[in-house]
Amino acid sequence: MKFSASALPDGAVEVVVARLDLEPDALGALAGLLRAPERQRACRFRFERDRRRYVVARARLRQLLAARLGTQPASVRLARGIHGKPVLARSGAADWRFSVSHSRDIALYAFCRGREVGIDVEAVHAVQDADAIAAWYFPPRELAAFLSLAPRDKALGFFGGWTRTEALGKALGVGLQPASARDDDSGWRVHSFSPAPGYVAALAVERA
User: Fold this and answer.
1) β-bridge pairing 2-4 and 96-103
2) Domain extents in the chain
3) pLDDT value at 117 more than 80
4) Which fold, 2-206?
5) 156, 182, 159: which is closest to 169 by C-alpha?
6) CA distance readout (Å), 113 to 12, 60, 92
7) Interval 38-70: pLDDT, tens
8) pLDDT tens-digit profile of 156-165?
9) Integer Cα distance of 122 and 50 in angstroms
10) Which pLDDT score is estimated for 4?
11) Burial of 86 (C-beta count, 10 Å sphere; 0-12/13-18/19+)
């Protein structure tokens, strides 16, 4: 499944949604697309479920990037930016930027040329100490909106705020930070959506 984030007027950001729960035969074929360090990392997962999800998510990323770069999935070279954000080692003139997130059996990929992008997805469920967590990580406006919700809306509201906060942190390349450490976010657009029943996601993209 794929769609363009037309709600973001700055332009072409593509979001791709993929399932991670594949049959064993399909999993074996995808594992063959990974490079040696990725296969080694996959082997370090304690649970088979987590190993499978990592293999599928990483191989799908390679396939999607290869299609945009006009190369083979195994030939895509990935590196880490200053703050650890995954980047293309050699993006060339295309200047592709991307972000990846997965939760349970859903993976989301965001692609954009020339502007930084961040994406996050979470399965909605009740969270203990949600108010305290939100107070620590959510920016003031996001926190106020969350605290005003009725109890029945708190789980969805929490993950709405969490994914927006996380997506922006990924776009900035700094990850999740306490609200007190956040810089001004006026240079970014953040869009919330649901990629599948029971999931909430957010996309952050740099303004043109």
Assistant:
1) unpaired
2) 2-206
3) yes
4) Ribosomal Protein L22; Chain A (3.90.470)
5) 182
6) 8, 19, 11
7) 999 999 999 999 999 999 999 999 999 999 998
8) 999 999 999 9
9) 16
10) 42
11) middle
Full-model pTM: 0.88
CA-wise closest residue to 62 among 23, 101, 109: 109
How does pLDDT run across 169-207, given as a tens digit for each residue? 999 888 778 876 666 677 899 999 999 999 999 999 998
Place of tokens 């009740």: 126
Angle at which helix 154-172 crosses helix 130-137, to 10 degrees, equals 30
Tokens of 89: 């080692």
Tell me the CA distances in angstroms from 11 to 7, 67, 94, 139, one per residue in order: 9, 20, 16, 26
Q: What are φ and ψ of residue 204, in 5° steps?
A: -115, 130
Tokens coding 68: 């945009």
The answer to whether the CB of 199 falls within 8 A of the CB of 159 is no
